[in-house]
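Input/output pair, single chain:
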Amino acid sequence: MDFPALSVDAAPRPWTGRFDGDGAAHRRWWQAVNPGTGTTAALHTAAPNTPAPAQRPAVILGFCSDEGVRRNKGRTGAAAAPAAVRSALGPLAYHSDRPAADAGDVVVRDGELEAGQARAGLAVSALLDRGHLTLLLGGGHETAYASYLGVAGSRAVRDGQRLGVLNLDAHFDLRDEAAPSSGTPFLQMARAEAAAGRELKYAVVGISEPNNTRALFSTAEELGVRYLLDEDCTAGAAEAFVADFLSGIDVLYLTIDLDVLPAAVAPGVSAPAAYGVPLPVISAVCRQVVASGKLLHADVAELNPAFDIDNRTARVAARLVSILLG
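Output:
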């Protein structure tokens, strides 16, 4: 299906999965998003002022990029992640009444990261302004700045709703570099928010102290970043931390860097975690965010299929997507 109004580079391909029958009782993700089932309804029935956030149609968009990882001297391969997540998500049971759709991919080619981020941002803004719940599949964590451009350009933020950015990640990604990369997106956001006359409300769950320099902790302190160390991420501590953050915002952009999880759970990332935050804690945070009614947009980043074992990381990513969009 063609979406000429969106700045995508590749149209969505048909999803596949196990077939147990037609109808809601047998529905799986591949049936929910394929043309003729969920796609048309989800992309064309939402209104700009959809009143109930829980009922917003879900739209998935891929961001095929590992240019930011390459610039950050990491293991490339994340450009193949959107297809891997769709493949893992397709066979999962679909328990929601929410319409779902796939809007295709934005593809970063020839090192042109900034142009790709701009295209993805325009697509996300357009979908948000149509009343959709959007999820961007990265890609390295340069995906986050593409997401930010989309969220910041949306009607909700332009009209003055207080935006919060919650990052589930082992890293601050606040590097000050000459060229944008997977290590710079949140410093870019902070500077863009300052230019817009706003202050970035940024919180991180899962920070690894050994994997962030003193300079990065100093930058985080200067910017007023809230964070919870990976070693402190019990279920209760994470819930309280997120609840406090949510209380001060109107709409949330949630970004999940899969390297927040232990390497045994998520081996297929550019920088596997030696410690990590347990999957039950991460999934509980996702459910908490959904239950808040404040989730505007989400993304999942840093899956690297070239280093995945038994598709573990792709399956985890798919499970988290099903929570966020279910």
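The beta strands are 58-64, 100-107, 133-138, 163-168, 201-207, 226-229, 251-257, 295-301. The radius of gyration is 18 Å.
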